[in-house]
C-alpha cells in the first residue's frame, strides 16, 4: 500500500517548523522509522509532512556541567557508535546497540522515539530511568519536562499543537554509577514484551527504576531503594502498577525486572 497524498515542507529553522506544524493535520518527520510505515499503511494521513531532519538546532550536542543536551534528530546509530559524547559510563551506547536492527538505527532518532511514545521502545524507558528531560519548542515558546511527565500513555505525549521536541538532556553520572537493562523479545530486534531499566549512582544517592513495555506509560520509581534491597517487593510494585492481571505476563515482567536489578552488579561496564 502507498501513503495517501500529502504536502511536503522542509523549513529552514525551528520557528519555521513550529509555524508549519501549527496547521491542523501536519506531522513532523525526521528518521521516519515510525511515521513512514504508518503512512504506507494509511494508519496516519497527515495533510502535510514537515521534514525537520536537517535543522541544525536538532543536530547539536551541548556539553553542560550537569549533563549533555542532545538534539532530537541524532540517530540511534550515533549513540551506538560513540559519535556523540556520553554523560554516563557507556550506558547510552549499550542501549542504542539493542534497538531494532542496524538499518533502523541508522535512520531512527532519539527525539522521534520519544514523540512516538511506543511503550515497548527502548529510549523512553531508558531515559526515564536516567532522569532525562525532554526539551520542547512551539508557538508558546520553549519548555522542558521530565521524560516520565512528557509521556502520558501509550502513543500519547504532552506535545501541544505546533510543538516539536528539540532535544533531550541527560544528567551526568559518576564513574561509579551502575546501570541494569533487560528486555524480553520473541525475536532479536522485535518489539519487547517486557522491559526494565535500573540506575544506581552512589555519588548522588540516585536509585531509579523504570518498567516499560506496559499497556500505558512507563512505570517510574524515583526512589527504588526498597525494590533494589529486597527483590521480593517487585511483585508488589507490579501489582500496584496494574501489571499483574495476566499471570503469564506478570511472571515475565517480574523476571525481567529481577534480571535488570541483578545486572547492576554483573554489568558495571558497557557490553
How would you describe what is shown here?
- This is Carbon monoxide dehydrogenase.
- InterPro entries: Diverse_Substr_Oxidored, FAD-bd_PCMH, FAD-bd_PCMH-like_sf, FAD-bd_PCMH_sub1, FAD-bd_PCMH_sub2, Mopterin_DH_FAD-bd.
- It holds the Pfam family FAD_binding_5.
- Keywords: FAD, Flavoprotein, Oxidoreductase.
- The structure is a single chain.
- The strands form 4 sheets. The chain has a 5-stranded antiparallel β-sheet with strand order 4-5-10-6-7. A 4-stranded antiparallel β-sheet has the order 11-12-13-14, sandwiched between helices.
- The chain has helices spanning about 15-20, 35-40, 75-80, 90-95, 100-105, 110-115, 120-130, 145-150, 225-230, 235-240, 245-265, and strands spanning about 5-10, 25-30, 50, 60-65, 65-70, 135-140, 140-145, 150-155, 155, 165-170, 180-185, 190-200, 205-210, 220.
- The chain has about 270 residues and is α+β, with helices and mostly antiparallel strands.
- It folds into 3 domains: about 5-50; about 60-170, Uridine Diphospho-n-acetylenolpyruvylglucosamine Reductase, domain 3 (2-Layer Sandwich); about 180-265, CO dehydrogenase flavoprotein, C-terminal domain (Enolase-like, domain 1).
- The longest helix has 20 residues, at about 245-265.
- It is globular, with a radius of gyration of 18 Å.
Amino acid at each position: 500500500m502507498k501513503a495517501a497524498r500529502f504536502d511536503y515542507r522542509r523549513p529552514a529553522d525551528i520557528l519555521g517548523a513550529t509555524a508549519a506544524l501549527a496547521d491542523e493535520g501536519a506531522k513532523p518527520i525526521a528518521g521516519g522509522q515510525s511515521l513512514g510505515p504508518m503512512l504506507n499503511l494509511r494508519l496516519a494521513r497527515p495533510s502535510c509532512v514537515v521534514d525537520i531532519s536537517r535543522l541544525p538546532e536538532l543536530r547539536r550536542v551541548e556539553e553542560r556541567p550537569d549533563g549533555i543536551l542532545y538534539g532530537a534528530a541524532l540517530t540511534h546509530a550515533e549513540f551506538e557508535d560513540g559519535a556523540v559524547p556520553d554523560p554516563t559510563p557507556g550506558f547510552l551506547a549499550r542501549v542504542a546497540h539493542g534497538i531494532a536492527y542496524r538499518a533502523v538505527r541508522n535512520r531512527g532518532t532519539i527525539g522521534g522515539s520519544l514523540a512516538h511514545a511506543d511503550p515497548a521502545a527502548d529510549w523512553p524507558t531508558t531515559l526515564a530511568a536516567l532522569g532525562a528531560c525532554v526539551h520542547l519548542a512551539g508557538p508558546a515558546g520553549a519548555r522542558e519536562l521530565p521524560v516520565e511527565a512528557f509521556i502520558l500513555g501509550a502513543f500519547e505525549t504532552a506535545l501541544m499543537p505546533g510543538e516539536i521536541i528539540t532535544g533531550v538532556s541527560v544528567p551526568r553520572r559518576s564513574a561509579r554509577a551502575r546501570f541494569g537493562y533487560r528486555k524480553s523479545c520473541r525475536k532479536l530486534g522485535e518489539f519487547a514484551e517486557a522491559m526494565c531499566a535500573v540506575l544506581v549512582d552512589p555519588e548522588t544517592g540516585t536509585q531509579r527504576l523504570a518498567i516499560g513495555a506496559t499497556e500505558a506509560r512507563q512505570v517510574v520509581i524515583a526512589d527504588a531503594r526498597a525494590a533494589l534491597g529486597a527483590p521480593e517487593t517487585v511483585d508488589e510494585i507490579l501489582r500496584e502498577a496494574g501489571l499483574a492481571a495476566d499471570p503469564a505476563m506478570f511472571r515475565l515482567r517480574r523476571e525481567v525486572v529481577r534480571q535488570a536489578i541483578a545486572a547492576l552488579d554483573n554489568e558495571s561496564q558497557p557490553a
